[in-house]
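so ive been stuck on this for like two days lol. basically i have the seq below and the ligand is flavin-adenine dinucleotide, smiles is in there too. i just want the complex predicted, nothing fancy, no docking runs or whatever. if the output looks off dont worry ill sanity check it later, just need somthing to start from for the group meeting slides
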Amino acid sequence: MSRNWAGTYEYSAPRIVEATSVDDVRRAVATPGPVHALGTRHSFTDLPDTAGTLIDVTGLPAEFALDEQQRTVTLAGGIRYGVLAQWLHERGWALKNMGSLPHINAAGATATGTHGSGNGNQTLSASVRALRYVGADGEVHDLRRGDEDFDALVVGVGAFGIVVEVTLDVVPAFRVRQDIYSGVTWDAALEDLDAVTGAGFSVSVFSLWEPDTFGAVWVKSRLERDDDAVADTLLDGVIDPGANPLGDLADVTELGGVPGPWMLRLPHFRLDGTPSFGDEIQSEYFVARSDAPGALLAVRELADRIAPLLFVTELRTAAADDLWLSPAYGQDVLAIHFTWHNDPVAVRGLLPDIEAALAPFGARPHWGKLHLMEREAIERVHPRLADARAVFERLDPDGRFVNDHLVRVGVREPR
Ligand SMILES: Cc1cc2nc3c(=O)[nH]c(=O)nc-3n(C[C@H](O)[C@H](O)[C@H](O)COP(=O)(O)OP(=O)(O)OC[C@H]3O[C@@H](n4cnc5c(N)ncnc54)[C@H](O)[C@@H]3O)c2cc1C
């Protein structure tokens, strides 16, 4: 029996191969029948599942190649961001941004448009400079930014092959402090949402959809010098040195304005700890930042039904990119995330109403989290879905990487 990280989904695949080399991956792909990539298992649905062979790539060797001239690092796809970040930091380099969790692997995270936050920061996928994958023909293929198909394949949700290596953009290492602002009201935030989301390098709002209070605003400020000052107030909120929006979770990276290296501040959770709540379900929807106040008001109408099922909502932003299936394709976005109690029936009962409330804003779902949107609805909000599907069908004409989930959401054609 094998489950996803949260324990909310049990893979039905009869066989899981734990690859420790690219040849292992090639051999597994050469086995007859459907195949699919499995990463660190942090998605929440049947997205990676298959009726054939799951190929777990997290055992590929943790070897890194830094190219300081090109400002890139190349690594095996299944490596966790936290491990990569430590290695880069020791050499004076950094990733442009990180997600909340350092435990997720590079190939799986970038395949689903995983993101951190920041008005000026793109998704983690947008940092992919090149990728190497084993295709349906069992051969190794290389693709670089600018090549035909590249923009279709980066956020490729496992639909065309097994990514065995990624090359990511890097920047010189930098320092960051984290501060929490309490007391920001809905009225103030809706009046000037850009002031909230633009309050630092990366901003997350942790909200419980309370009537007056917008939420705790978690600001990650990039520092030139460790004694750089930050503002004491944010709209009608104030800096709160003792606050931790994630409550008693012990494994949160250091708060309270203490300067530290980028990789110990950009993720919310520490690599050596147990992240998040564990027994949980996550959902997330992306709307254009220009629509953000309206979209938040529409969801707020459902606050009484959301609250009993919710651990916490997190609001983040991402800058536009050109990747066809990216949640930020062609527009700057606000991401509206829900960490739910592990009550799948109740959560599935509420999601259609959240999705209906967000439909007028063209909300796109996070590929890796629980949503109920299917092909027709996704086609309306992802303008390049049909183009991406055509590329996947061309690269994998026999449907080796097709699974039920990808057909449901319109990423692949049914067989
Ligand atoms: C506690 C927690 C915190 C999270 N925080 C964030 C966050 O801050 N931001 C955010 O955006 N998301 C976040 N997520 C969601 C998570 O990043 C995504 O679900 C991501 O897809 C997880 O990648 P994975 O490889 O672990 O997932 P998996 O379930 O293993 O795979 C997900 C998808 O990626 C594909 N895939 C995996 N490896 C490969 C590969 N080598 N080649 C081709 N395709 C591959 C799979 O086929 C599948 O389609 C979080 C999830 C959890 C559980």
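The pocket of flavin-adenine dinucleotide is lined by residues 4-6, 36-43, 47-48, 57, 77, 99-101, 104-105, 107-109, 111-112, 114-115, 157-158, 162-163, 275-276, 282, 366, 368 (CB under 6 Å). Residues 259 and 290 are 32 Å apart (CA to CA).
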